[in-house]
Amino acid sequence: MITTLTVIAALAAGQAAEPASTEPAPAGPNPQVVQKKPVTPAPSAAAEGAMPEKLRLVAEGSPTLEWGVPSRCIDRARDVFYRAQCDEKARRCLVAPDAELDPDGVAVAALERAPACAGPALTLVDLTSRGYAVVAALAESPPGWYRDERQRVMQVDFDLNARYFLGGGYAYSNGGPWSGSAVVSGGGRADRPFTWWDAPALARMRFLEGWASVDGDFAELLLFGVDASRVYPTPLLRITTFFGTPRRYDPPLYFGLWAEALRFERLQTEAGKGFDRTMMANGAVTVDLYRSKDLSDFLRLRGGAGYEQAMGGDWGSFVPHAAVEGELTLGGRGQHHLRASAQAEWLTSSGENLDPTLPQNRTRLTVKGEYEVVAFALNNQPVSLALEAKAVKRNDVPDYPTDWIVQAGAQLRFSLWAPPRRSAKTQDSL
């Protein structure tokens, strides 16, 4: 599409050749004058027939103005304005009302999330009298946003990896001291692209992430965590085969880093006593087996170690761990998310204050999965439904079941902010 400024320069140059026109010629680089037979300007009413007094609601399937391309102001008289983008070769102009409309097609509010059109304003006569077809269209909208037939804009693409949410719901356990309870939750996520050793990379940061039962007996909270993945211009592993024509295969193998600081857990034992532990620091190396082009989605292996204290520091433990985990965004607008992980931890205590009922070497096995779907948006912020399942087998807590405990729950989550994804697309039609 040729930018509107070039087209308008052509129109203005054409006007300069017609003494009856007093429209000033807008400045523009190297205007191209369209040579054609003189055209008698049509009456204003005929020219304005393409856009009646009551603004026309855009029909389904209509095109949209292109985001990032300047739009020219079009004056239809009586203070009714449009915005236009023209294709000089096709002699066609996409024209959209420069306002939001009511159900009857009357302008009632300023157009939101669209750049101002460029002036001085032309008229529809300037377009139609020179042979340009006027096509009703939607105004442009930013990537991840959508306009309806009344030019109202709404966010439809959501980056759930760049938000802070608050939620609540219910969780049920199949055994142990906790049989079920209402829960509240919250969590922040911020993905930040950066450059790592002259290659694109992504840092995924999590903060104040966790949940708690409403009675306060069970809770888990992560203060801060970060991990980073990097694009490798040269593959780390290259395999060449010689069965016939030599073939090279580059298996996905990408190293990254992972760390957490201050993860708290509190739970109630079968005897009704409280147990708490604090993972002071935890670090690991990751190996990405799969990741999306923008590095947001991944499947990876993780291995590392941390140090934790239990019962207010009564005993400490060195905690090596190994895990496989992944995240996947489904659909074209970021409205469906899958998250899953399986982790094994081995605890070896130091000091003499370990509870005598516990073995020196202990384990924690955790498997969990989550599906989250954006149900609707409230003031352009997503409200999502999250379904969770979690299974834990551990022997690091006194007077606590050592068999598998399965927990399932459902929550509604409200995001305080969630911008469109970095890969969000622009609307191309109604």
Q: What's the topology here?
A:
Blueprint: H1 4-16, H2 44-47, E1 72-75, E2 81-87, E3 92-97, E4 99-101, E5 107-110, E6 118-123, H3 124-128, E7 133-136, E8 145-147, E9 153-155, E10 162-173, E11 180-196, E12 199-213, E13 219-230, E14 239-241, E15 247-249, E16 254-268, E17 274-291, E18 298-310, E19 315-330, E20 336-350, E21 361-378, E22 381-394, E23 405-417
Parallel strand pairs: 1-6, 3-7
Antiparallel strand pairs: 1-2, 2-3, 4-5, 8-9, 10-11, 10-23, 11-12, 12-13, 13-16, 14-15, 16-17, 17-18, 18-19, 19-20, 20-21, 21-22, 22-23
CATH topology of the largest domain: Porin
CA(first)-CA(last) distance: 19 Å
CATH class of the largest domain: Mainly Beta
Count of helices? 3
CATH architecture of the largest domain: Beta Barrel
Strand content: over 45%
Helix content: under 10%
Please mark out the parts with pLDDT under 50 across 5 or more consecutive residues, or reply none: 1-50
Q: What is the chain-wise order of helices and strands?
A: HHEEEEEEHEEEEEEEEEEEEEEEEE
Strands of the largest sheet, in order across it? 10-11-12-13-16-17-18-19-20-21-22-23
- DSSP strand tally: 23
Shape verdict:
elongated
Can you summarize the main beta sheet?
12 strands, antiparallel, barrel
- Calculate Rg over CA atoms: 31 Å
Descriptive notes:
It contains 3 helices and 23 strands. The protein is mostly beta strands and 430 residues long. The protein has 2 domains: 4-151, no CATH class; 162-417, Porin (Beta Barrel). A hairpin with a 5-residue loop joins strand 16 (254-268) and strand 17. The two termini are 19 Å apart.
